[in-house]
Amino acid sequence: MTHDRLITTALLVLFPIAFLAAGNSFHESLLIYTAINAIAAIGLCLIFGLAGQISLAQAAFVGIGAYATTLATNRLHLDSTLAIVAGGLVAMACGWLVSRPLSRLHDHYLAMGTLAFGIIAYILFANLSSLTGGLDPGVTIARFKFVGNELPRSNDLFWVCWAFLVIAALIGSNVTRSKVGRSLRAMKMSEFAAAGVGIDCVRTKALVFSLGAMLAGIAGGLYANFARSFNASSFGFSYSIDVLVMVIVGSLQRISGAIVGALIVTVLPLLLDRAEDYKTLAFGVLMVLVVKFAPQGLVDGLTQIASRLRLQITALRRRPAQAR
C-alpha cells in the first residue's frame, strides 16, 4: 500500500502541472472530466475492488448528486461548493438506503440488484421533468460561485475538481488502511468467515456503499457545474460500465489505479475520434489484454514488473561479489 500512496501522490501532483501546461481549453476540459471520472472511480474502487461487491449503479448515484446539487444551487441558493457537498450527502443517504436490501445479495444477484436500481433511477430522471427536466430539455445550473464570486473562466473549475479529487483520494487511502478496510478485505475473501470472527457484514457493506455513493454524488455535482446544461441521458447504464472499466483497467485495489483508469477511459475515445467504428473494439481488446496479462489492473501489473526487475538487478549486482 506504500507504493499506492506514492503513485497516488505523484498523480495528484501531476494533475495541476498538466493543467498549467495545457495549450488550449480542450485539453483543460479533458483534465477536468478525468478528475470528475476519477472521483466516481475511487468510489467504485472501494465498493468493488476493496469489498468485492459488484455494483452497476454508480451512474445512478452520479445522477442523484448532479440533480441534488442543481436543486440546491438554483432553488435553495446555496453556495456552489456547499451545494456539491449537499449533493454528495444526498447520494450517500440513497446509497445507505439501497444497501440495506441489497446487502444480503451475493455475486451476480448483487450485480443484478444494483443494475435494477440504476435502471429505475434512470427512468425517474427521464420522467420527473418538474425536477430533472427529463430528456428534453434537461436542466441548467447557475454559474459556479466561490464565496459569492463567479469564476473568471469555466475551466477554472479544475481547481475545485482537483481539490475534491485530493479529498476523495485521502478518504479512499484512509479507508483502505483502517479497520474498516481490513474488514472489507476479509469479507471479500470469505463473507462467512468474516462473520464468524465477529464482523458485522451488513453494517460494513452499508458503510462502503454509502462512501462509494457519496463520492459518486460529488462527481455528479462537479459534472453539473462544469457541463451546466445536461439531461438524464448522461446517467444511463453505459456510464456505469465506463466507471467499471476504469476500475478494472487501472486497478481493483489501488486508489492510484482508479485515477489511471479514469485517465485512460476518458482520453482513449478522443484518440480514436476519427475511428468512431473502432472505439468499442479498442475497449474490448484493452479489457481482454488487461484481464489476461494484468488481472489486478495495469498499476498492479506494472508494479509487479518493476519489483521483478529490481530483484533481478539486485541479484546481478551480488553475483560478482559472491564470485570474488
From TrEMBL:
Organism: Chelatococcus reniformis
Coiled coil: none
GO MF annotation list: branched-chain amino acid transmembrane transporter activity
Subcellular location: Cell membrane
Membrane topology, from the record: Multi-pass membrane protein
TM region positions: 30-49, 56-74, 80-98, 110-128, 157-175, 206-224, 255-272
A single Gene Ontology CC term: plasma membrane
UniProt keyword list: Cell membrane, Membrane, Transmembrane, Transmembrane helix
Record-linked Pfam families: BPD_transp_2
Entry protein name: Branched-chain amino acid ABC transporter permease
Statement: the UniProt record of this protein carries the keyword RNA-binding: no
